[in-house]
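Re: beginner question about structure tokens

> Can someone show what the tokenized structure looks like for a real chain? I only ever see the sequence side.

Sure, here's an example I had lying around. Input first:
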Amino acid sequence: MTAAGLIFANIHDQSIPELTRVRSMASVPFGCRYRLIDFTLSNMVNSGINRIGLITHHNYQSLLDHIGTGKDWDLARRSGGIKLIPPYVTAYDQGVSGTPAHRLETLFGARNFIAHCNEDCFVLSDCDIICNIDLSEVIEYHAATGADITFVTKRVDASSMHLAEQVSIIAADENGVVTDFTCTRPEEGIVNLYTNIMIVSRAYLLNVLNNAAAHGHRSLFTDVIAPSLGKANYRAYEYDGWYAYIGSLEGYFASSMDMLAKEAREGLFGIKNRPVLTKVRNSAPTKYKEGADVKNSFIADGCVIEGTVENSILFRGVKVGKGTVVKNSILMQDTYTGSDVTLNCVITDKDVTIRDGRHLSGHETMPFFVGKGVSV
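And the corresponding structure tokens:
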């Protein structure tokens, strides 16, 4: 069975407004040198999917700069490749595009792309997830069961996950047939979390879109999936690899800190023949000057470190001044810290300047955030 991909760039922008004020969820930086979309794109490319539609809504200039022609993912092709699907504007927008449309409405804008694809099914994925999954296995399962939709799920301990206000929980029987689909916020217990990845048969997807347009449906889950339980062939595929969910700034911070653990690194970056691809930049190596002390940290290229960095993540071009101590923090691209600065549980966006002698501290459950281009 052949497959094409559809990626939603803006669906979860409201989850972390601090970071999506100037960019889409898909282009939120993560793990020193990546953007969140890199994990979704890599999963598709590594699974042999080379025709991908990228559905945007607003704030996507940063995303376009990052994707470019798609050559870093081997998607700069005459046939297939990555295609930008522009925003679908409806009367509901009333000239304002401040929030993304419903998922079904965004799919309306992709109908031409879907109709012109010859693939048997589509992989629909959001950009609020971090994992390294072999989608070809899910597609094989989808074909073997004859499913209309296959939902990828992950068994998680709700108390250990930093979930959003509402997440989707899927119940399935011993044969993998979906029996219930609820949107809630579980506080504890083991749950079958929907990972925001689904496989949809092409004919079924087109039929859903045509019916939705005829009947004025707007929500894929409320108007289409929930009423069809027990009628359509919905299946659940359980993913057992490493998985992180970005549902809030706290969740972003916790997932980033998880990258410092060996288990997370191996589960995400250590899988043979399944690299996480991103935009390649040729930068100078990081310079560690006299007095630099770095422990258990991710350091990107192009940094200059004169102080102490511990349990932290530094993106490209970060400058850590003399006598400065950075602990349990995330400093994004081109952040500059002066001398004798102390940072603990701090997230800085790009191009932040922290002057000499400043002391900033948050907590792991409430990190201190400094917005893009701000001088402290």
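Each token stands for a local structural state, so reading them left to right follows the chain. Residues 73 and 127 are 16 Å apart (CA to CA).
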